[in-house]
Write a structure and sequence with these properties.
six-stranded mixed beta sheet; globular
C-alpha cells in the first residue's frame, strides 16, 4: 500500500471481504494486536476504550471506539488486512464517511497496522490496481454503487 499517491495501490485478495471457497480462506488481521493497540491508543488519548464489536458476516471490519474528554472516535479495523480507518459514527458499511486519523492514531502504526487517511479512503477505485478482484466482487461493487477504496474495503454486502 502506498502512503499518499494511490495510483500504485494494489487492492489485495480479501480487501472486499468477498469469499470464494475455491480460492481458500481469506487472511485474518490480528484481532489481539488490534485490541492491544486500541488500549494503547486510549492511554495516549487520555481516554478509555468504548464498545468493541467483533466483525460478523457480512461486515468486513471490527468496530471499536476511544472516548476522550471531548468526544468518541470510532475506529474500524479491517477483518482481513491490518488496515485502520476512522469514522464519525458506527455503521454496517461506509462509502465516503471517513475522518482524518487523530494524532494518537500513530499507536496503531507502531503496532504494525496501516492507518488509512480519509483522502486514501476517498480515492476512486479507477485509480487503484484492482486486477485481483473477481467478477463477483465487481458485481457487488456495481450493485451497491461503490466507487471508492473505503467503500470497497469497509462494507457489509452479502
Amino acid at each position: 500500500m502506498t502512503d499518499k499517491g494511490n495510483a500504485s495501490f494494489i487492492l489485495p485478495r480479501g480487501a472486499t471481504g468477498y469469499f470464494r471457497p475455491e480460492d481458500g480462506p481469506l487472511p485474518d488481521a490480528d484481532l489481539r494486536a488490534f485490541h492491544t493497540a486500541l488500549y494503547a491508543a486510549a492511554r495516549v488519548a487520555e481516554g478509555q476504550v468504548g464498545e468493541i464489536e467483533v466483525q460478523e458476516y457480512p461486515r468486513t471490519f471490527h468496530t471499536a471506539s476511544v472516548i476522550d474528554r471531548k468526544d468518541e472516535s470510532v475506529i474500524l479495523c479491517h477483518a482481513h488486512h491490518p488496515w485502520i480507518a476512522f469514522a464519525q459514527e458506527r455503521r454496517n458499511w461506509y462509502a465516503e464517511e471517513f475522518l482524518p486519523p487523530p494524532s494518537w492514531a500513530t499507536t496503531f502504526t507502531e503496532a504494525g497496522f496501516v492507518v488509512l487517511s480519509s483522502e486514501q479512503l476517498a480515492t476512486p477505485l479507477s485509480r487503484m490496481d484492482t486486477s485481483v478482484l473477481s467478477k463477483g466482487e465487481w458485481r457487488h461493487i456495481r450493485t451497491y454503487g461503490i466507487t471508492t477504496l473505503g467503500g470497497a474495503c469497509f462494507n457489509a454486502w452479502a
